[in-house]
Structure formats: C-alpha cells, structure tokens
Amino acid sequence: MSAPFHYDFDTWVPRLGSQSSKWAHLTSDLPLDFANNINLGIAEMDFVTSQEIVAAIQKRAAQGILGYTAGRDESYLQSIVSWMQRRYRVATAPEEILHCRGANLALDASVRAFTSPGDGVIIQPPVFQNFAGVTQRNGRKLLENHLIQDEDGNYRMNFTQLEELAALPEATMLILCNPSNPTGNLWSQADLQRLGEICQAHGITIVSDDVHQEILRQGSSFHALGALFPANDKIITIISLSKGFNMAGLQVCHMIIPNPEQREQMQKVIGRSSPSPLEMVATIAAYTQSDSWLEQVNQYIDGNVKLYQEFMASELPQLKALPPEATYLAWLNLQSLGLEPEQINPFLREKAHLQLNNGASYGAAGVGYVRINLATPRPVLQEALQRLAQAVGG
Ligand SMILES: Cc1ncc(COP(=O)(O)O)c(C=O)c1O
User: Is any ligand 1 atom within 6 A of the Cβ of residue 110?
Assistant: First the structure.
C-alpha cells in the first residue's frame, strides 16, 4: 500500500479572482501585508479539500455532460448511510435521506414542514444566527433557552429552563447545534440524553444541526442525538460537506428524516431537490475516500487551537480565552475593552486590520464577543493574533 498523501496546510492558497466571499477584498495573493485585512470571520477553511474529492469532481466535469441525475442512486445514498454508521453510530437507511441545497435551506424547510405559524421553536443562544432567523422569518415564536456560563466562562445547557419551555403548549420544535457554533461546545452524552428525554416527553421534534461534526479535537468523541435515540423518529439530523470537507460553495447538504410522514411533509416543502452531478461524486468521495485528509486537517486545526491557547495565555491573559472543544471556531470575550457592539468591527478593522464575526449577531448573549476562525495557515493565524494583541494591548 502506498503511503497516504501528505497535505501542506501551512502554505497559503491564492484566492484572487476566485469569487471568494471571504477574500474578495484582497489586493494581492498574500494576506500578510498589513494593507490587507485578514478575514477570520466566515466559517470556511483556507485549506484545499481532499485530493479525492477534487479528482472526483474533475473527472465528472471532464465528461462534459452534466445532465439530470438519478438522485436516489444506491451508491451515493449508501455512502451517506455507511459514513453515519461508521463514524457516528447512527443507523439510517437510504430512504430516510433527503438532499437539500445547503444547511440554511434545510433549517428553513424544517421549520416550515414541521411547525405551523405561531408555534414555538426552542433554540439555545448564543448560537448560529440563522436558527433565530428561520424561526422569526416564518412567523414562529422564538423560545430562547440561553446557555449558562460558569465562573470560567464555559457554557453549559440550562435544563431547568428547558423543562419550562418544553412544557409550553406552543413548543413544537427544538433546533440543536452539535457541536455548537459559535461557542465550540461538544455536547456530552449525558447532556444530549437529558435534552432528548425532555423533548421526547413533550412530543417536541428535534432538528439536530450536526454540520460541524467532522471537526473534533484528537481523542474526543462526537455523540449524535440520532445514535442515542434510535427509536425516536422525531429527530431530524442535518449533515453537510460545507464545514467538515470545506466545500461550502457547493452547498452539499443532506437531511436524515426517519419518520415517513415527516419525510413527506418535507418533500412538499422542498419540492424537487436533486443533487447535481458534482455534488453526488463529491459526496461519495468525501464519505468513502477522504478519511486521511480529515485526519490530517483535524490534526492541523488542533495545532492551531494550541497555538491560539498559548498565545492568548501569554500575550493577552486578561481576555481569559477558552479553546473550542470542537469546530475550528473560537469564541472570545472582548467585554473588558468596553466597546459598544457597533464599535467592535471598526476597532478591529482600523487598529488590527482584522475581520472577525461580531458576537452580537448571535443574539444578546453574544454582545461583547467575537468569533475567530482558526482554520487558516499557521503563519496567517500568527500574524492575526499578533495584530489583535497589538490593538488590544497597545
Ligand atoms: C451550525 C450551522 N448550520 C448551518 C450553516 C449553514 O451552512 P450552509 O452554508 O452549508 O448552508 C452554518 C454555517 O456557518 C452553521 O454553522
């Protein structure tokens, strides 16, 4: 057997002219000169995806005919079934899997398919901003079960309040983020068990957004709600290639919906959603041939998390930065700077030539925080942290 291909994640991949939303502002191919803002906001990595995915897409595109696909193709659906079983102990079947163009659409469609106007949807802020967005835009009632922080700033679930909200007559759905964006929480088996039991007792449908499940620290385990409650057919799982395989631009997303009636309801909402030929071959290559890439990218991100933790402890100890338990996203408390939410982005842009995600966009609980994307070549991360230290410290 040949040795696995070794990926070089240290080297910056030029992005000029690639219509990248994250790097459209660059004026040269290297983001390191001070005139260029370093963007560690948008949640995508600055790394190439697995060579197997790239080769599969190239091969399919080279055929030159990109016609309608057989979206229920067995090898394609089976690659998803096997991935979920092998990596996350989720037992599913091809007929339970529906394709959707992106996780944002899957979230929106879930709210429309499984709740009615006026129903309550529970979310756990600070959390991915579109959970609130899809709830409110569809005229559903937002039920906020705020995460609580211990004295060190670590987040945990508030089960007392969850019990109260779940018991409300209008409560119909809970949207879970596991692992959590932006706090980086990797929810424990015990937490998920408790959350699942509360929802089950009140007949609440859970939409588990697991799109960050592939990015984990070495030695830690991801627990899927669907694996813990195999008999509960009111748990919908959203998975995608966007985060774990760094292909957000292709918007490859799948929903696992065990209950046939709910599948039918979903089908009515999303209509005919067929995967494109490129999405299909990318899915198969990701889920059957890309383990080595995933392992290497996770190791590299672990190194960046360590660098972040050590840098922050030595250069900015007053900020008490916490490393993320999972994901490549770090959630940093800047409240000690005394800035208003609307002053944070201009401060970072002007003083540090940095773009980060403003915590206020994750709800009131995120005010004074920023989210930093650590999935970038180490020299870029080092430069970004130095700029932050100079701006905050100087
Ligand atoms: C938890 C979560 N869900 C959904 C999305 C949206 O994913 P996509 O762009 O693939 O639709 C994101 C993107 O950041 C996310 O973090």
Answer: no
What span, in angstroms and rounded, lies between the C-alpha atoms of 289 and 269?
33
pLDDT of 25: 80
Smallest CA separation from ligand 1 atom 4, residue: 103
pLDDT in tens, 156-211: 999 999 999 999 999 999 999 999 999 999 999 999 999 999 999 999 999 999 99
pLDDT bracket for residue 107 (50, 70, 90): very high
Q: Determine if ligand 1 sits within 6 Å of the CB of residue 242.
A: yes
- Measured in Å, residue 230 CA sits from the centre of ligand 1 at 25
Which of 274, 289, 304 is the last residue before a domain boundary?
Answer: 289
Number of domains within the chain: 2
For ligand 1, what atom is nearest to the CA of residue 177? Answer: 1
- Do 278 and 296 lie in one domain? The reply is no
Flag whether the pTM goes above 0.85: yes
Question: Is the minimum distance from the CB of 327 to ligand 1 under 6 angstroms?
Answer: no
Is residue 245 within 6 Å of ligand 1 at its C-beta? Answer: no
